[in-house]
Amino acid sequence: PTRVLTGITTSGTPHLGNYAGAIRPAVAASHVPGVESFYFLADYHALIKVQDPARVQRSTLEIAATWLACGLEPDKVWFYRQSDIPEIPELTWLLTCVAGKGILNRAHAYKAAVDKNRAEGEDDDAAINAGLFMYPVLMAADILLFNAHKVPVGRDQVQHIEMARDFGQRFNHLYGEHFTLPEAVIEAQVATLPGLDGRKMSKSYDNTIPLFAPRPTLKKLIASIVTDSRAPGEAKDADSSNVFALYQAFATPAETAAMRAAFERGIGWGDAKQALFERIDAELAPQRERYEALMAKPAEIEAILRDGAQRLRVAHATPLLARLREAVGLRDLS
Ligand code: TYM
């Protein structure tokens, strides 16, 4: 079967970008026959940015409840928490020793942090932890450990998947064909969802719409999306509009075409936002209800995650690590 794998960092409350870019396509793929799916909570990755234990724990619960509320079936897919699989940090080290440092120097997230330091007149690496630098190697271990073929992600993650291919290839070249080289899968019409201010929707920009915000909050946040100042009756440019980009991610092609026509006819921003609110709310309302019920049962979620990790270690992680240790020379001496 084709193996599909993706993760979400447990550094905050899940937002519409996580949903449209990762969760929705992943849950849909998990229902396709012949697909084996791996969905996990990237809590080791969270520690790079969040050093607030309560926040990491809360986010882990929220993201787990989100996956389950969105239709993930934990007895049909592999659903687990990264930190419950000790083979992941173990593989991270094996990959660290084949990963080119020069490649890591070019990782977008690290480079952006260096550029920010330079702009502020600081040393290049001021206040940058080594975790940020090593981020792509940990992510490569997540992917390669399970020999995933496809990794559905938003466009921001594509470089990381290319790096995973690179590290996997180097390892295979040195030690034999152990790893499948993964491919990124991007849903074209939702590649990058904009946030309230028009930049990429991201926890780091504080411009997100939380996936399961209560209805009145959802409405208020949508009303605050930045638009141009064209009045009702004036034709509007759909392709440069954040409201349109969000609408498109939640509407059928026919609804999207109708909205494009309405933009050309000069729909007012208030009406366009109302249509967006209704579209999103219609899709999310049933899942919001399930989410709220799940958030009240953290012990059940904990049991699901532990069980998933335990079975996955036995089925995949432990035997593969044993082969890899053998391959690199960490061997029984007798
Ligand atoms: P994270 O937690 O930043 O985001 C989780 C997923 O949501 C997607 N995404 C978006 N998609 C569209 N529009 C947006 N505005 C938007 N914001 C976020 C991301 O592309 C991602 O698919 N490093 C990863 C987590 C990770 C992972 C992995 C993913 C760790 N190991 C292995 C895949 C495979 C991350 O921080 O995603």
Automatic annotation (TrEMBL):
<feature type="binding site">
    <location>
        <position position="142"/>
    </location>
    <ligand>
        <name>L-tryptophan</name>
    </ligand>
</feature>
<comment type="function">
    <text>Catalyzes the attachment of tryptophan to tRNA(Trp).</text>
</comment>
<feature type="binding site">
    <location>
        <begin position="200"/>
        <end position="204"/>
    </location>
    <ligand>
        <name>ATP</name>
    </ligand>
</feature>
<protein>
    <recommendedName>
        <fullName>Tryptophan--tRNA ligase</fullName>
        <ecNumber>6.1.1.2</ecNumber>
    </recommendedName>
</protein>
<comment type="similarity">
    <text>Belongs to the class-I aminoacyl-tRNA synthetase family.</text>
</comment>
<keyword id="KW-0547">Nucleotide-binding</keyword>
<feature type="binding site">
    <location>
        <begin position="9"/>
        <end position="11"/>
    </location>
    <ligand>
        <name>ATP</name>
    </ligand>
</feature>
<feature type="short sequence motif" description="'HIGH' region">
    <location>
        <begin position="10"/>
        <end position="18"/>
    </location>
</feature>
<dbReference type="GO" id="GO:0004830">
    <property type="term" value="F:tryptophan-tRNA ligase activity"/>
</dbReference>
<feature type="binding site">
    <location>
        <begin position="154"/>
        <end position="156"/>
    </location>
    <ligand>
        <name>ATP</name>
    </ligand>
</feature>
<keyword id="KW-0067">ATP-binding</keyword>
<feature type="binding site">
    <location>
        <position position="193"/>
    </location>
    <ligand>
        <name>ATP</name>
    </ligand>
</feature>
<keyword id="KW-0963">Cytoplasm</keyword>
<feature type="short sequence motif" description="'KMSKS' region">
    <location>
        <begin position="200"/>
        <end position="204"/>
    </location>
</feature>
<keyword id="KW-0030">Aminoacyl-tRNA synthetase</keyword>
<comment type="subunit">
    <text>Homodimer.</text>
</comment>
<keyword id="KW-0648">Protein biosynthesis</keyword>
<feature type="binding site">
    <location>
        <begin position="17"/>
        <end position="18"/>
    </location>
    <ligand>
        <name>ATP</name>
    </ligand>
</feature>
<keyword id="KW-0436">Ligase</keyword>
